[in-house]
Amino acid sequence: MFLMITEIFLIATLFIVLFSDLLLSKNKRSLLGILTALGFLLALVAQIFFWNESGSLFEGMYVQDEFSKLAKVLFLIIGFFLSLMIRTYATKLVGGQGEFYLLLIAAIIGMSFGVSSTNLLLIFIGLEIITFSSYIMTSYLKHARASIEAGIKYLIFGAISTAFGLLGMSLIYGGSASLDILTIKNALLSSGSDQTLLIVGFLFIFISLTFKMAIVPFQVWAPDVYEGSPTPVTAFFSIASKTAAITIFLRIFYEIFLPIQNQISIIFAVIIAATLVYANFAAIPQKNIKRLFGFSSMSHAGFILMGFLASDAIGVGFVLFYLFSLIATNLAAFFVLSLLANHSENDRVIEYEGLKEKSPMLATCLFVSLLSLTGIPPTSGFVAKLLVLYSAVNEGFLWLAVIGIFMAILSAYYYLSIVGKMFLEKPKDTSPINIPLSTQISLYLTVGFVVILGVVPGPFIHLCQQAATSLF
Questions:
Q1: Fewer C-beta within 10 Å: the chain N or C terminus?
Q2: What is each CA distance from 300 to 41, 273, 277, in whole angstroms?
């Protein structure tokens, strides 16, 4: 039972929030956010308390290893802070707050099941739980045309992604007669199996997951969906959905297809280079802050994929550390974006002019986040980018590392231009912004973590590399 402690706590939280939503009066619905955050926090404490519990269930289809435990810690941290972020945005959720929290909990449950699954069918189910929750959250603002449009676009591209994933799984089943990860790997290593079918199947699964990661050339949905979605949902796509797709892909790639890495590494490298170049140049002219963060998210997905060029636990550990950094950085940034969304009719970058005068705290927190996204020391973003660039160089892709360095420098233009607007421009409206206590604490925690990861990264890198060893 303790092997599934995270899922048990999350399912319990789901039912508690569901019944509370039915029983509480309208003026007490704000308690739903507290209940959701408390559920994530208790699940996180339980996961850490039972950290030494490892093993498998359901004839090996579900595993609790170091990698899945660390991934679940990341998911629960994301869920906890997103539930607090939703509370700051709750006044705009005219469709109902309770349902929104339930969708978030369901998505995190799907992530937890997916990352612990060693059967492709169970992984698919976990991904679809995330995807279906995302469909509804994206179009949740029924009175906003942009939200409905974003939901339809994501539904269409999500269906295409699902079709590619199912086709890949069917080809893999045809080549190995199994959906079990270990059996597929043995079939790949067997000279009597149809290896071409397995490799083609893997490429289709890779395409499916790159849709969710918004990697070139499967990124076309991201800017519009990021712009049209409610701000907490944009944060969900930028942080939670991307983390789930990357961790699940880590398990599939390193536990099955690591033997063919040499054959496909050049494909990875070309895709990474295209993603970095496209995302950073496309971000420069953006006037909408959420759309800009959509391209920013693509760029960071490209940097994360550099870690996949490594063939050992060190490289995977660098990927996990990058996720740690990106989660803390984006959470801090989106808390600011979510608060400002309540004080503005739009999400234009120009609305950030003079933010220092309206709220020095928000301006400072967003400043630190933007420094980290750019990769400037002493933030975690600097260390994270340095590690994945090292992975690329160490694997013989010096040209890719050079492109990465130039794109990181280019990103400073659009990130630091926001900083200039916040600190050097005069605001049109000088009225102060009220910051709820929970948001203040969240901002202090996330920004503090960004700095701690940048100043003392060693223990976290070691933890990530320990978790990565369970994939080999």
A1: N
A2: 27, 12, 11
